[in-house]
Amino acid sequence: MSARAVQNRRLARTLAAVNENTVSVLSFDAEVGGRPDHSQFHDEIEVVRFPLSSAIQGIVRKLNLVRSTIVNRVATEFTCNFMYPKSNLLIGALRRRVEEFQPELAIFVAQPFFVPLLGLQLECLDEIRKVAFFSDPWPYRGLPSPYNRHAFPLAGNYNRKLISQVYSNFDRVIYTNSSAVEFMLDHYPELKRNSGKLAVAAHLADELIDIPSTEVVERVRSSVVHLGDLSKERFSPQLKKAMAQCIHSHGMSFTFIGSVCKKLKQSLESGEFGNSVCLLGPLPDKFSRYIASRALANLIVEADIKDSPFLPSKLTDVLTSSDRWVFVSGTRRQPGVGITPGGGEKGICVPHDSFAIVDALLAVTHLHAVNADPCVGSLRAGAIERNRNLATKYLE
Prior knowledge:
Layout: H1 3-17, E1 24-27, E2 34-35, E3 38-39, E4 46-49, H2 55-63, H3 69-82, H4 88-101, E5 105-110, E6 129-134, H5 156-169, E7 172-175, H6 178-187, E8 198-200, H7 214-221, E9 224-227, H8 237-250, E10 254-257, H9 262-269, E11 277-279, H10 288-294, E12 297-301, H11 315-319, E13 325-328, E14 348-350, H12 354-367, H13 376-395
Parallel strand pairs: 1-4, 5-6, 6-7, 7-8, 9-10, 9-12, 10-11, 12-13, 13-14
Antiparallel strand pairs: 2-3
């Protein structure tokens, strides 16, 4: 399940809990509510699923005789850059749902990036407050390297027109961090005319918390833990050097929960880290905050990019669960001000510098004791209260 799908589930649950709102979820994600045999939505939340189809992608896949993943990716990115749903089937289904449900508020969540553009096709939504929620900035044009590699030549002006229409026709546009807002305003000056519609709402914390196996708990208690995906952009040479020094000079171990890049796997296979790095693979999202609360230290890594408009997907889960974290970032900013657990010391933000990373991990592991038995009820209550406060960004 993607990080965005998880956030969407949390948002739906939170909105349903605030003032006992009635929530209907329309999604392209077949598992938007979780596994079919174990839904993460309350019975009061209605879920409507419909398949995402693209004529262009379908044609390309049929003609792609060599089964090239690159060709398929190009077709996908072409659709995201140039196309958005205008099919009578999709818009008709959405219109019928709106007529039946009669909502006061419609929230269009990207990705796919073109989802907010659906609101532009529905004249019947003129009397409904429309909110566009971008978990990441879009269009691709102007994004810092290497994230701009998906931008298509000549797509810039067309994308500029589309995003400007969203800003002009929606009542509110929400991003998950201030850097993303600053990035959009810098690269699309015409958006400043609608800057009053912009808001920042950090990712929601998970109120569904469970305890993983004893083996996992014991492992993370003695490890530096990284939750979420570690992409090749984040696994910098400086981070690799710092990990090796922590392992060989200070006896630390590292545990990665989620997918990791090929570079890290190659380093493991070559024996650079000995037996001190454990790859557990993806675990159910409900374990994330408990694991963060038990970890010897939490490692959060952002790509080495100045003023990056992105934030790691598990950042909120870590910062709302523990004060033992090291955030490696090219921006040198303090993440998520105000969401560190009350009364706890803040973690440490460092650049992609091997010596700074080592010093920070030593400081965090030496100065902060691990809770012997974290209170799941307290973690859950804190998330519910925080999520309710953030929900006002969507409802105000």
